[in-house]
Amino acid sequence: MDMEFSPEDLAFQQEVRDFIAENYPADLRDKQDEGEEMSKEDFLAWHKILYKKGWIAPAWPVEYGGTGWTPTQRFIWSEETARADCIRLMPFGLAMVGPVIYTFGTPEQKAHFLPRILSGEDWWCQGYSEPGSGSDLASLRTAAVADGDDYIVNGQKTWTTLAQHADWGFFLVRTDKEAKQQEGISFLLIDMKSPGITVRPIITLGGEHEVNEVWLEDVRVPQSQRVYEENKGWTCAKFLLAHERTGIAGVAASKRGIEKVKAIARTELDGDKPLLANAFFKRKVAELEVDLAALEFTELRSLAGPNANRGPGPESSLLKIKGSEIQQRLTELTLEAVGHYGAPYFRGFGEGDNEHPIGPDYAHRAAPTYFNMRKTTIYGGSNEIQRNIIAKMVLGL
Amino acid sequence: MDFTYTETQDMIRDTLARFLGDTYDFETRQKFINSDSGRDPAIWTALAQDLGMLGAPFAEEHGGLGGGALENAIVMEELGKVIGVEPYLPTVVIAGSALKAVGGAQADAMIPEIIAGDAIIAFAYAEPQGRYDLANLRTTAKKDGAGYVLSGHKSVVYAAPWATHLLVTARTGGNPRDRDGVSLFLIDANLPGIVRRDYPTVDGSRASEIYFENVAIPGDALLGGEGAGLPLIEQIVDEATVAVCAEATGVMQKLHEGTLEYTQQRKQFGVPIAKFQVLQHRMVDMFMEVEQARSMTIMGTLKLGLPANERMAAVSAAKAKVARGANFVGQNAIQTHGGIGITQELAIGHYFKRATMIEGQFGSHDYHMDRYERITLAD
Fold first, then answer.
1. What local confidence, expressed as pLDDT, does residue A207 receive?
2. Stated pTM of the model
């Protein structure tokens, strides 16, 4: 057991730093640094740079386009991209449906979809939640009825992140109404341009258009776009959720976030001293750092420990719970740190609008980000559901 | 970067776990901790001579297993699982670390005695006025010819009633709380002028108040440089601190497992109380604290070799987190057990008592947060 980077690891670290320095666009870095909303083009710009380099999917098996990096190299990669304020990659293709397709898909599905996920040609969204099915996901009612070689799909999905950009969606639909809840569900890949699909925006607390309602009315989907067996979609869903949970820990990004909070608290004054000299505020920062270290080493144990090759299991729920709590505390501290200038509300600036916004730059997105990040303990299976998963799968209760 | 254990480390853990499983069941422990001496010396001898366990962190040239802090952590975690009172911490971890650090003739003489199980060394560092400040010392060692004369009062010296030797911090110069002028001595525990008041501790061990009344000690009892001992003392206390974090991990794991087991047997309202979601989620929260304690112990252990400031920040982060976790897991284990949890009958309460003492050992949560902040969040 050791924490040393080998000479090869250090060389890799340098290679990553050089690559980012030479290739990561400065305008993206600035937007990320200030926590601004990203456009589809922003996301795709960085995606395509990494695709060209062959570094778009480090977690994938090499045969499908992965990098073959060691856990240490992947750790270095996430550290360095966070340090450099690289924008995050959309997880829906790379971290969610991609692994489902290469694990459960047909050769044709793999050959068609995986290269398009890697290249960024297809933008994916996730059709899971429904108005009546949140934490109780298996109660979902969107139904697919066989019709020749197709299914006809009807229903409503909600909280569909960035569906307004999506070319494709992966959907959980009911294919057997008689079966027990979890046994009648199938996993379908649906072209978002199919007739009968309507996407309607939901505006969240920070003013973002991030999530949507998706309505499906008599949408015709070829059965060849079903992944895995009919009525076995829950297997794919559980697999995907475990994958999603690990990425959700967000350790490297939270480390970067703490650096930013500290920088703000060294700038903001409290009396005649920096806010960071306030014993109460300082203690909150310190507690957050300590908790983040505990999360980091818990994640490292799972990535580079004895069970590293087993893939994400139910214990990844711990990473999701603690990671999301830390993300929220971070945004809460940031908002606290900026004081009065948390209040002014900006919706970005139009083309050619050079008027300087009110208050310090670091304050503009503090409140909207705080509001927005309340989602982290709700999505991906709420933290209460994660506790149920640990209770059942790890503790055997 | 690698977070796996070597085969030797796995073997140490397995061997020790088997041995303790055979010798240290709860009833047996209760018998010997309540005996006159408070321990079963045969266990220490077996740990040394049958298992070679007291050599875990020492070099092979001294007769050890060639390990280090990770091996200590493994042993301490296993001792934690049986709430063992064996003086591994002061003897092997603390005195062992000091001897390894100074090396030379003192190490050559003493380490083989430790490994053989012939030496038990208690660490006399705390004083009534000193709280967790290692430099806040009124005990003095005054130069006297080739040797020193030791005077002062040391508090709550765990394992002192069993000790053959004492590792003592004392002032050879400067004022109380100065960083300079602190020295470390390894002395015979039975020198004339050493007066002990022995007592049991709430967590099942034995300890003493020790009064040094003009105790003449030889010059070669000094470990390291005269008056320059504080950095060494800080280092060995950091080693000890992560070792109790490891012990805490074992204690917390047992508190959690005991609670899981109990809630599956105990029925109320016609069902095992483990069916209640409010208790399930609490036990999940306990599980997460155990896992994070384990992570922080590994983090602290792996960073013991870093430069002093980085080492201290890491150790303080670990201890602060583990102290909170031990508190949470201990209190909730008792609460979940209900009335039976506050009796002496079940093991769970005894694990809780040890967990509670570990919270403060070598510095409370607040002490370590303060130290962490001074290093990493300076204005």
1. 87
2. 0.94
- The 3-state secondary structure of B228-295 reads ECHHHHHHHHHHHHHHHHHHHHHHHHHHHHHHHHHHHHCEECCEEHHHCHHHHHHHHHHHHHHHHHHH
Q: Which residues contact B91 (CB under 8 A, 6 or more apart)?
A: B54, B114, B119, B120, B121, B159
Cα–Cα separations (whole angstroms), residue A58 to A90, A99, A377, B102: 14, 12, 26, 47
Q: What's the gap in Å between the CA of A73 and the closest CA on chain B?
A: 9
Average pLDDT over residues B18-22: 97
> Residue B374 half-sphere exposure, CB side, CA atoms within 13 Å?
9
| Angstroms from B317 CA to nearest CA on chain A | 5
Cβ count near B317 (within 10 Å): 28
Residue B52: band (very low, low, confident or very high) from pLDDT cuts 50, 70, 90: very high
Contact at CB, B283 and A395, closer than 8 angstroms: yes
Strands B165-171 and B206-217: unpaired
**Structure tokens that stand for B66 in this block:** 């060639």
Selecting among A36, A130, A244, A332, the annotated active-site residue is: A244
> What's the sign of the alpha-carbon dihedral A376, A248, A54, A105?
negative
Quickly state the pLDDT bin for A346 (edges 50, 70, 90): confident
pLDDT of residue A302: 86
Whether residue A157 contacts residue A129, with contact meaning beta carbons closer than 8 Å, is answered with yes
Average pLDDT over residues B131-155: 97
